[in-house]
Amino acid sequence: MEMPEKMLSLLVFAMVFVFGVSAKAMSPGPGKPVNNRPIIGILAQQVVDKAMDRFGKTYIPASYVKEMESGGSRVMPIRLNQTLPEYEKIFKTINGMLFIGGAVNLKTSDYARAAKAFYRLAVEANDAGEYFPIWGTCMGFQLLTVLVARENLLSNTTAENVALPLNLTAEAPSSRMFQGFSDELLKALSHENITGNFHHYGITEKAFRGNERLQQFFSILSTNIAENGAEFVSTMEGRKYPFYGVQWHPEVNRFQWNPKKNYPHSQNAASVSSSLATFFVNEARKSFHHFRDPEEERAALIYNYAPVYVGNISGYEQSYFF
Ligand SMILES: *[C@@H]1O[C@H](CO)[C@@H](O)[C@H](O)[C@H]1NC(C)=O
Ligand SMILES: *[C@@H]1O[C@H](CO)[C@@H](O)[C@H](O)[C@H]1NC(C)=O
Ligand SMILES: *[C@@H]1O[C@H](CO)[C@@H](O)[C@H](O)[C@H]1NC(C)=O
Ligand SMILES: *[C@@H]1O[C@H](CO)[C@@H](O)[C@H](O)[C@H]1NC(C)=O
Ligand SMILES: *[C@@H]1O[C@H](CO)[C@@H](O)[C@H](O)[C@H]1NC(C)=O
Q: Which atom of ligand 1 approaches the CA of 81 most closely?
């Protein structure tokens, strides 16, 4: 039986209304379906640090895993060098993706290739009316700018081992990312040294605003001043897509403790970290990807791996190796 055209368009409208990409809504509204068993995929990073390479070729610092878990999600580590069909299969089982920090080539590394595959899948899924969020931290942030701009616009914006307040832009208060922040917490974020910076490269505000693709894709939520005086973009969120980037490190505020590093640990610093974890996992709750086989799900999760103590050889406390 053919559906009358009017009914069909009503049905499509209703489906878009219920499941559509409504990036504006922070948490799923009443009556909207939610996925309360989200899984965040974290792409493993190539080990470049000589002190750590005896443990494995790729790693995920435990602080990123804890950050995601603290928002109420489970984590699935994703290995590099898999085939596109393998990544497509994984994509259908996860509800969000985290690109972590590190130090590899953003165009030619195994990491960059895998990240690009997931980025494309996420863009396509969101275009098709699904909701699939991505978060990039530090190098993950830089990677998002390269993927969106389709060129590397990074330059020296060194801010190494320094905690700063964010210079929030006019767009920050109405952003999705900071919607759950109280006025007090937003004030602390812009006045207290509670965002940890550990980077040599970044994108200047000038380079960002000069690139049409970036400008159309992301809103700039904050900037900061680098050691060389350059003003760099420190926080951004997708205008249309649920993609988010921070040049700083929310996870260190609660999960890294090396006394030689300026990791902010005040109550407000911890609140910023936990509020962002809650925010991002809520985004992932709007995705309905899932494993078909519970055995496969069980075997894919991070719980199958034991983190290694690396507090004496790195700035991390613990790390997973693959
Ligand atoms: C990925 O494959 C390349 C080429 O075979 C190899 O050189 C590299 O070590 C692999 N990387 C990882 C992380 O396994
Ligand atoms: C914040 O950090 C800056 C630069 O590192 C420092 O000059 C300033 O005193 C710090 N502010 C507070 C309140 O700790
Ligand atoms: C914020 O911007 C002002 C004006 O450009 C600048 O003087 C200040 O250093 C910036 N603060 C930070 C923490 O980057
Ligand atoms: C970046 O700038 C800083 C501060 O001006 C400088 O110390 C550093 O050597 C520069 N790094 C690179 C990679 O050019
Ligand atoms: C770091 O600690 C681990 C576990 O306690 C120990 O096995 C290792 O030898 C230590 N490494 C260094 C370089 O001290």
A: 1
Q: What is the DSSP letter of 81?
A: S
Enter the pTM of the model.
0.90
Name the class of domain 39-321: alpha beta
C-alpha–C-alpha distance, residues 98 and 132, integer Å: 11
Cα separations in angstroms, 114 against 42, 44, 99, 143, 312: 11, 10, 10, 11, 30
pLDDT tens-digit map of 208-263: 999 999 999 999 999 999 999 999 999 999 999 999 999 999 999 999 999 999 99
Nearest to 43 by CA among 164, 139, 127, 125: 139
In the reported structure, the alpha carbon of residue 80 is separated from the centroid of ligand 5 by a whole-number distance in angstroms of 27
Q: Residues lining ligand 5, judged by CB closer than 6 Å?
A: 309, 312-313
With a 6 Å cutoff on the Cβ, whether 79 touches ligand 1 is no
What does each C-alpha distance from 173 to 167, 177, 206, 221, 308 come to in angstroms? 12, 9, 22, 9, 40
